[in-house]
Structure formats: structure tokens, C-alpha cells
UniProtKB/TrEMBL annotation:
Gene Ontology BP, a term: glutamate biosynthetic process
Family: Belongs to the Glu/Leu/Phe/Val dehydrogenases family.
Keywords from the UniProt entry: NAD, Nucleotide-binding, Oxidoreductase
Subunit comment: Homohexamer.
Annotated NAD(+) binding sites: 214, 245
UniProt protein name: Glutamate dehydrogenase
GO cellular component, one term: cytosol
Keyword Oxidoreductase recorded: yes
Residues given in the record as substrate binding sites: 95, 116, 119, 170, 384
Record has Transport as a keyword: no
Start and end residues of each Glutamate/phenylalanine/leucine/valine/L-tryptophan dehydrogenase C-terminal domain: 207-450
Active site: 131 (proton donor)
Length: 452
């Protein structure tokens, strides 16, 4: 419960954000959460009010949107819409992923870019925040069509990015295949072999462990949260949503640490395997999703003891830990109630903003350990930062070295959340901790750089 003065500040601020950014519900949601966390801190430190930091932080430095024409395999012209939201460059070049999914809007990219600014601030690496992508749907497209689309996308995007300007990476619908095509086209257009994308193939400058980093990092963060209660992942039952990059590698790390993953999902439904998804089963899922680009339902063809639940989410199963790793707002208040009633004690967001505000409030109310995405999934962008470092130095670190650095970064983010998120009753509000810590880093850089 906020004081009357703080609540008034939040309400006034949000009504202005909504007035200036109409019809952008995801962006409003992301800003509201941050403002609620930082408002008391800002009111105690009026320098941030004088410099209008929050007003500037919620206005993107630049938004570009553009046409992407390309020819499909039938020779027909297709037209998609492209975006890049360059939100904040006060602590480094813009940095953040590209999403290819038919559901994207400017609101989605603004929320993702805003989250990215604070997340990147938490990593302690010099990266500003951006996000972008297209309403292109890679599902059902041939490799050749994906390549032609990526080439057209980069033909416009290349004007706005660069290794000292803006360094995109992957997100939903964008993995190693797409980054390879985009890197190739950028090199061809500019005649420069530079680290303008991260998540590249290891043969041409990609960091070892970048594909694994978001999922592994989310599990390292979960482990840190459990450590505060003298607990661990070993022996725990874990429900995971999604079956893409983040979900696959979160599953891999949970298995390695002795936990039992019982669910994975995609946008069509979820699978439940009461015996647990072991390494061999996970390899089969990787083949289905990355090799055939198939559906998670195909898992039960190979493992008939498991069950498939079409059009449902996995949050009704009994578990100790939940890792939502698919997309925004996939876990609502009703799902949170189910998880709490079934004894779930820890939730860490592998995806960006997968839990609705109602769900987050319930987790806090019931003292469920809850990690927001900007802290828990920061391992991906942090390892992208490590890829940028390796590219600048023209060297390649071993997998072990990158993993050590990733672990340390996740531990440091956890400590920062504890520092700023400790409540009077001793519990840790990781949302508050992450938001205040990310805010301070970016805000102080903005003040130092003047009114820009
Ligand atoms: N990749 C990275 O390094 C990082 C990713 N993230 C976040 O993690 C999340 C997952 O990204 P990533 O694993 O890379 O993406 P992928 O494209 O590899 O996988 C996405 C997964 O989520 C499912 N999904 C997508 N949209 C929906 C939807 N509307 N409803 C239900 N399921 C959906 C997909 O199912 P289907 O196959 O049916 O589409 C797929 O299983 C995103 O929120 C992303 O922003 C955060 C930090 C870094
Ligand atoms: O690696 C990156 O630059 C971006 C990762 C990303 O998109 C995210 O953290 O949401």
C-alpha cells in the first residue's frame, strides 16, 4: 500500500503516459510496474524530478517503422511491417532483440524496449536498450523465404544499427538461422565484418553459450532465490511454459541441477510428463522444435505415457517452481491462484512480462519467491554483452569462461535486487529491487549527460 502522496504521483504520471501513448496497453503495463516501484525513491530524491528522468525514460529516443517487401516461393509479393524502438542510449549503444511474430505492435516493442533499458542496466555491462522486429510469421515458411525476408528486413534496418550504435539479437521467432541471414546481408550491404548482431554462429564471432544463456541464467537466478531460504533446485518439480530457446535451456539446466521438469508448451497447448523430461527426451523436443519446426503435441507420439492438453496452459499442474518462458501475459491471476493452491513456492520469469499484475500481486501476497523477467532473464543479453566484448577484442572465450561470467552476473543481479528490494518484514521484493537498481544506473547517467 503506497502513501497518498506517492499514489498521487503515480496516478498523475500514468495518466500522462496513457494520454501521450494511447492504445498501447503493454507499454502502459510495463511503465506502471516500474513507476510503482520507483515513485517512493524518486520522491525522496527530488533530483530525479527536477531532471524529469522518468518522463524522459518513458519517451523513446527514436522509433522507426518501415516496409519490408519480399517475394515468396511462388513469386508473389509479400509486405510486412518492421520496427526498431531505440529507447535509451545513456549507458551504451542500443541493445535488444528482434521478434518475428504476427502479434507484434508498436506497443509490444515499446514495452520490450522499456524493460530492456532497466534490464541492461542491471547487468552492469555498457548497453542501452532497444527492441524491434516484424509481424512476419516464420511458421510454415521455407528456409529460402525466411532468408529473403531477413535480407529485405536488414536492407532497411542497416541504416539504423551498427556496432557502436545499435546491436540487435534474437527473440521470439529469431534464432541462429535468422541472425545468420541478417548478418550476411548486413556484411554484403556495408562491406564490413563487424559485430552488429549478437547470437551469431560460433564460426563467425558468436559467443559460446549465448544460445543457452537466457535459460541457464534464469535457473541460476532461481537457485540464488532458493539459497536465501537454504533451499535448492535438487528434487524440485518444475513447470515450464514455452518450448523455444529459453524454455529448452531452462529445462536443460534444471535437469542438470537435479530438478524434475514436468511440462513444456507452445501456442497450441502443453505436454505433461509425470516421470519428468530427461536429457534424452529434451533432445527429442529440440529435434521437434528446432529440427522439424514442429509442434509440442508431437512429444506424446514418442512418449505415450505423457499427456497433451490442447489450448491449455501448464499452470494447473502440481509443482514447486514455475518458469514461464513463452510470452507476455501468459500467466494471469487465475493461473497464479492455481499455482499457489498447488504449493508452488517460487516463480521466475524466463519470458518478458509473462505474469500479469494480478498474478504478481498474488505471488507477493502469498510470499511466493517471485523474480521479474528483467532480473531473471538478463543472462541472455548479458552474454550478448560478452559477445560484443569478445568481438571487440577479436578473441573467443571458452564455454567455461563464459559460464563463469554468466553465473557471476546473475549472482550480482540477485544481490542488487536484495539490496534495493528488502521489505521491513525481511522478505525480498525482487520487482522493487530490480526496478530501483536499474533505474538508478540509467538515471544517474542521464543526469550526467545533460538534457539530451
Ligand atoms: N531468446 C532470448 O535470448 C531471450 C528471450 N526472452 C524472452 O523469452 C520468451 C521466449 O523467447 P524465445 O524462447 O527466445 O522464443 P522462441 O521463439 O524460441 O520460443 C517461443 C516459445 O513461446 C511460445 N509462444 C510464442 N508466442 C506465444 C503465445 N502468444 N502464446 C503461447 N505461446 C507462445 C512459442 O510457441 P509456438 O512455437 O507455438 O509459437 C514457443 O514455444 C520471450 O518472452 C522473449 O522475449 C528474454 C530474454 C532473452
Ligand atoms: O541479447 C540481446 O541483445 C537481447 C536479448 C533480449 O531480447 C532480451 O533480453 O529480452
Amino acid at each position: 500500500m503506497q502513501s497518498e502522496k506517492v499514489q498521487k504521483y503515480i496516478d498523475n504520471f500514468m495518466s500522462e503516459v496513457i494520454r501521450k501513448n494511447p492504445h498501447e496497453p503493454e507499454f502502459h503495463q510495463a511503465v506502471q510496474e516500474v513507476v510503482e516501484s520507483v515513485a517512493p525513491y524518486i520522491l525522496e530524491n527530488p533530483i530525479y524530478i527536477k531532471h524529469k528522468i522518468l518522463e524522459r525514460m518513458t519517451e523513446p529516443e527514436r522509433v522507426v517503422s518501415f516496409r519490408i517487401p519480399w517475394l515468396d516461393d511462388q513469386g508473389e509479393i509479400q509486405i510486412n511491417k518492421g520496427y526498431r524502438v531505440q529507447m535509451n542510449s545513456s549507458i551504451g549503444p542500443y541493445k535488444g532483440g528482434l521478434r518475428f511474430h504476427p502479434s507484434v505492435t508498436q506497443s509490444v516493442f515499446k514495452f520490450l524496449a522499456f524493460e530492456q533499458v532497466l534490464k541492461n542496466g542491471l547487468t552492469s555491462l555498457p548497453m542501452g536498450g532497444a527492441k524491434g522486429g516484424s509481424d512476419f510469421n516464420p511458421k510454415g515458411k521455407t528456409d529460402f523465404e525466411v532468408m529473403k525476408f531477413c535480407q529485405s528486413f536488414v536492407t532497411e534496418l542497416q541504416r539504423h544499427v551498427g556496432s557502436f550504435t545499435d546491436v540487435p539479437a534474437g527473440d521470439i521467432g529469431v534464432g541462429g538461422r535468422e541472425i545468420g541471414y541478417m548478418f550476411g546481408q548486413y556484411k554484403r550491404l556495408t562491406n564490413r565484418f563487424v559485430g552488429v548482431f549478437t547470437g551469431k554462429g560460433a564460426e563467425f564471432g558468436g559467443s559460446l553459450l549465448r544460445p543457452e544463456a537466457t535459460g541457464y541464467g534464469a535457473v541460476y537466478f532461481t537457485q540464488e532465490m532458493l539459497n536465501t531460504q537454504d533451499d535448492s533446485i535438487k528434487g524440485k518439480t518444475v513447470a515450464i511454459s514455452g518450448s523455444g530457446n529459453v524454455a529448452q535451456f531452462a529445462t536443460e539446466k534444471v535437469i542438470e541441477l537435479g530438478g524434475k521438469v514436468v511440462t513444456l508448451s507452445d501456442s497450441s497447448g502443453y505436454i505433461y510428463d509425470s516421470e519428468g523430461i530427461d536429457t534424452a527426451k529434451l533432445e527429442h523436443i529440440k529435434l521437434i522444435k528446432n529440427g522439424y519446426r514442429g509442434r509440442i503435441s508431437q512429444y506424446v507420439d514418442e512418449y505415450p505415457n505423457a499427456t497433451y492438453h490442447p489450448q491449455e496452459k501448464p499452470w494447473g499442474v502440481k509443482c514447486d517452481i514455475a518458469l514461464p518462458c513463452a510470452t507476455q501475459n501468459e500467466l494471469n491471476g487465475d493461473s497464479a491462484k492455481l499455482l499457489i493452491d498447488n504449493g508452488c513456492k517460487c516463480v521466475a520469469e524466463g519470458a518478458n512480462m509473462p505474469c500479469t499484475p494480478e498474478a504478481v500481486n498474488l505471488f507477493h501476497e502469498h510470499k511466493v519467491l517471485f523474480a521479474p523477467g528483467k532480473a531473471a532473464n538478463a543472462g541472455g543479453v548479458a552474454t550478448s554483452g560478452l559477445e560484443m566484448t569478445q568481438n571487440s577484442m577479436r578473441i573467443s572465450w571458452t564455454r567455461e569462461k563464459v559460464d563463469d561470467k554468466l553465473k557471476t552476473i546473475m549472482q550480482n543481479i540477485h544481490s542488487s535486487c536484495v539490496k534495493h528490494g528488502r521489505e521491513p518484514d525481511g522478505s525480498i521484493n525482487y520487482v522493487k529491487g530490480a526496478n530501483i537498481c536499474g533505474f538508478i544506473k540509467v538515471a544517474n547517467a542521464m543526469i550526467t549527460q545533460g538534457v539530451v
